[in-house]
Specification:
Layout lengths: L5 H14 L1 H15 L5 H12 L9 H18 L4 E5 L4 E5 L7 H12 L3 H9 L2 H30 L1
Antiparallel strand pairs: 1-2
Helix pairs in contact: 1-2, 2-3, 2-4
């Protein structure tokens, strides 16, 4: 399959996920598992429900729904050449991609990029701050992020009426 066709497939998948809860759940499960390792059923379900809403797996027989979804997701990973497995090790239990790193490649690249942007001088300035000053700095950054989000949402409401 031509690589140029992948965006078309992705757009079709996004469209299907918006209209079909099963597709949306399975798409999210695959996305979470591609990024993170050693996620348990509870961890995966809570992540999906944070996006799709509580009860996304149904009110009854949710465990059957989850395992059906996971069978489909596992089959999809296998078709792409990955082996989705489950570890019962107490130190590291949960679903993971056998032979892959602790985190997905894209997350690893994002972390590397963030580390590369660290300014040693700024680190020294931060180290010199008291714990209260560091907490205040963190809260200030968080408040700014919330203000930016609120501004963008308000602008989106005005633009799309």
């Amino acid at each position: 399959m031509d690589a140029e066709f992948l965006p078309v497939q992705q757009a079709l998948l996004e469209d299907a996920a918006q209209r079909d809860l099963v597709t949306a759940r399975r798409k999210l499960l695959a996305e979470f598992l591609a990024r993170e390792r050693y996620l348990t059923r509870a961890g995966l379900m809570s992540r999906v429900e944070m996006v799709l809403g509580r009860g996304s797996f149904g009110d009854t027989a949710w465990d059957d729904v989850f395992y059906r979804d996971m069978r489909a997701v596992k089959k999809s990973f296998r078709a792409a050449g990955y082996d989705l497995a489950y570890s019962r090790n107490k130190a590291r239990s949960g679903y993971y991609l056998r032979g892959e790193g602790e985190i997905g490649r894209s997350i690893a690249q994002q972390i590397k990029g963030a580390v590369d942007e660290i300014d040693p001088k700024q680190v020294e300035v931060t180290r010199s701050l008291s714990p209260a000053e560091r907490a205040q700095q963190g809260l200030s950054i968080t408040n700014l992020a919330h203000q930016v989000t609120a501004y963008r949402q308000a602008k989106e409401r005005i633009t799309h009426g």
